[in-house]
Amino acid sequence: MPKLKVVTFGCQANELDSARIVGLLARDGYTLTDDESEADLIILNGCSIRDKAEQKLYSRLGTLRALKARRPNLRLGVAGCLGQREGETLRRRFPYLDLVVGNGEHLVEIPRLLSAAAVRLSSAAIPPTGFFPADVEVHRDSRYRAWVGVMEGCDNFCTFCVVPHTRGRERSRPPDEILGEVAALRDRGYREITLLGQTVNSYGLKLEPPVSFAALLRRIDRVVGPYVRVRFATSHPKDVTAELAEAMASLPSVCPHMHLPIQSGSSRTLARMGRTYSREEYLDKVQLLRAAVPDLSLTTDIIVGFPGESDKGFEETLSLMREVGFDAAFAFKFSPRRGTPAADFPDQVPDSVRAERLAAVLSLQDELSLRKNGKWIGRRVEVLVDCELSKRGSGLAGGRTRQNKIVHFTGGEVEEGTLANVQITGGTSHHLKGVLIPSL
Ligand code: SF4
Asked: What pTM was estimated for this model as a whole?
């Protein structure tokens, strides 16, 4: 049996694509290995959103070249957004690659490309239009947590972002196909399902007839009942609606957490980013959600040092962070991406300023997260026990609350994938601490 190793760089969409690659190649007899030295095929599933992610993959390819020199039968491939965007460049720069392929539905090309006699063709030039076929079983590492892709691509063309160029235009899976996958996961005992899309809450607007994301959540809730947690990522502020807030408030399966990227607290910068909302409109959406879901946890993405971001504009980001009080934030220095308008904006911010601003955002978020987590002390929470979050050596079990907060707790062994009640006794900016409440 040939052995396969897939290394993932990037976001949850790339993780899902890796799971699709494994499922696809399992049909050709490949089994997974963690050990590079025994792999027959290594695929690096690469991210193109930031320069740093690309450089990491290139450096890994350099290391793998030496392995391939020792084992000429080893085949090496690059897939994902990087393969989609940089296919030809990759083939020129790394001539020892056996396979270069794009992301999403392009992955179905892999078996054909691997069986080609000579140079493996890249499918990077094909514009993405469809969806990964539903009949390919997605490989799932976890027995209780699963990602379900519901839409692909993006129509928003933010001026800094390559996603519309790498994942194509926005398209949604038919609801019945999604419901079938969700029902199968429920029947296999899965406890948590995360619906994935680049702007997941824009789901279904282009379907015929249109289906709102809230309507999809209602249909999923009827399938899974209160026994399965339903999460979703990533949401776009423009498609946060009263209907969605109401669905989150009323559907027992839907978790009270939203990842809602703000990117900047300055309306001027937001306009230059092409984000289609202002600071005030974002704050209105937050108010709408919090009025409906009082225990909502809200996380965000922030870019610092976007071209033309003044000191005042940056201060507005800090003040918005304080005003919203995010539970967590993923902050990044602006990274110019070739082919996007922002890469050619004339007023680039020096890297030293970007670095200072990043440090300020991270430090403020640390304070805010600590304060937010402190509010949970004394409360009882439901935790889905997750072995990846457990600290076995120190006797701490781990898991996540419905708000997606990490909890480490003492008080006994609990099987992973089960729900535990935990009394919260403390917290850091990163996680909550607690004690297991024994079940009666
Ligand atoms: S909405 Fe998100 S995925 Fe789409 S272009 Fe903007 S940043 Fe990229």
From this structure: 0.92
